Amino acid sequence: MEEITMKDINLDEATVKDIARGDIVKGKVVQITNEGVYLDIGAKVEGRIPIQEFDFSPRIGDEIEVLVVRKNEMQGEIELSKEKAKFIKAWNNIKEIYNDTGYISGKIIKKLPKGYEVDIGIPAFLPFSQIKKIENIEEI
User: Are 114 and 80 part of one and the same domain?
Assistant: First the structure.
């Protein structure tokens, strides 16, 4: 058996994940600034989510699922999106449910001039012309 020494091991390659644009990954909040929230996603550099994507105050150590939007590790930049990751996961879930059952159910959020806004994991529009039967429609 061949002996392995520390000089034979590249620690960067051993601990860094292979992360590509379009991947959905989990990361830990390591820094919060006025411009963004920085996450350790296992890459050589930390990724940044624009602060505008947060409707809550993240804290150091929080785990957040994000989409890798743009990656340029040579310049020390990885752009992340919490909202896009949420949308993609919801859309994939909707497609899976539809393929299994042929139906998507949701909750009517509000009445619009030509239909309803419906929450099906993401906001959706349901035109009046597509409605077959809604009970207690006056309560909406």
Answer: no
